[in-house]
Amino acid sequence: MATRKSSGGSGLWPWLGIALVIFLVDQFTKTLIVGFFQHGDSRHVTGFFNIVRAHNTGAAFSFLAGAGGWQRWFFVGLGALAAGFIVYMLRQHGHQKLFAWALTLILAGAVGNVVDRLIHGYVVDFLDFHWSWMSPLFPGGHFPAFNVADCGITIGAGLLILDELRRVRKS
């Protein structure tokens, strides 16, 4: 048991290092947005992309955003629990590269958004993609604004699905 623990622990540190780098990029970009934009500001970049400053007190797609404030602490607690579970899973399965990448990206994103909630009371979002064909789904075709942490969570979730599909295919 001691051997498994030490090998699992040593495999954990590279993944935590990668998560730290992604977390720092997330926090740096959010700090730039908070420093240079007022809430609601928008700058046109291309015909389908703007940099904006949006505040999300809810979860994905502003789920529970108008819930009265309790959701801040709910999502902080949920994010903290998820981070603890992910670290445990990385310690146990850090040798499974695709699975570990998925968990690492989700960990970085979860911690980045939890830190926002603790500091600001909301998550800072700033990436605004818009296409006219999305108008039936989103006002003006604007997909809800998101951030680097959200990218990590989304890509990580996609990798988890891919990892599971590969695992099922092998069996």
Number of H/I helices: 4
Number of domains: 1
Mean pLDDT over all positions: 90
Q: What is the overall silhouette? A: globular
What helical percentage do the residues reach? 55-70%
Distance between the termini: 28 Å
Structure description:
It is a single chain. With 171 residues, this protein is mainly alpha-helical. The longest helix has 35 residues, at 2-36. The protein is built from four helices and three strands; from the N terminus they run H-E-E-H-H-E-H. It has helices at 2-36, 70-93, 97-120, 148-170, and strands spanning 42-46, 49-56, 123-129. It has one domain (2-170).
Task: Describe the structure concisely for a colleague.
By secondary structure, the chain is mainly alpha-helical. It has helices at residues 2-36, 70-93, 97-120, 148-170, and strands at 42-46, 49-56, 123-129.
What's the structural blueprint in terms of helices and strands?
Elements: H1 2-36, E1 42-46, E2 49-56, H2 70-93, H3 97-120, E3 123-129, H4 148-170
Antiparallel strand pairs: 1-2, 2-3
Structural descriptors:
about 170 residues; mainly alpha; three-stranded antiparallel sheet; 4 helices; about 10% strand; globular
